[in-house]
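User: For a reading group we're discussing how well predicted structures match intuition. Take Zinc finger protein 84. Before you show the prediction, I'll give you the sequence so everyone sees exactly what went in.
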Amino acid sequence: MCSKRFSHKLSLNKHYFVHTEEKPYSCEVCNKAFSNKSNLNQHYLTHTKEKPYECEVCRKTFAKKFHLNVHCRIHTKEKPYVCEKCLKSFSQKSTLNQHYRTHTKEKPFACETCSKAFSDKGNLTRHYRVHTKEKPFECEVCKKTFSHKLSLNQHYRIHTKEKPYECEVCRKTFTHKLSLNLHYRTHTKEKPHVCEMCSKKFSDKSNLTRHYRTHTK
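Assistant: Thanks. Here is the predicted 3D structure of Zinc finger protein 84, as structure tokens, for the group to look at:
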């Protein structure tokens, strides 16, 4: 069929299923079928919630050895996947593929509702919530819900009073990175927002918006 060679007959027999599309191993819980037994065993862990693979450094556990191997690169700082265009390296192949689209401008993930396209499937999933109004992330303290996990994390700092973003100039701290960026302009005197009518400049877009009203009155 494809002339591929194997050192063991068992490996050849497993490979045949690629061509025949036969899936003789079936899950007893959900009836999902697999071409080899090892994939079935891995699948069973989704039902048992068992995570037999443990990181030796931080003791985090995983259902699949592959996920453990990927996680371990956080500790080893290993980044084996290199972009051919800019030589930037990544710890995961999926992250490299996602990055590569910044060069190709490819956006293969399209919204079925409004046809807006995205380079990353995760961004498409988050975008869908604009249409579905779904807010799956709930604050444990006040039960407020959010459509994005990042928004929940930012909100949570209202309760924890955490201010992780610090100004390098005056050491003032902020809850959000955007607030830090806006504050930083008080030091740099940068005013990137320009009025199209009178060319007056502002450091903050909201101030520009308020200024526009002086022209429309």
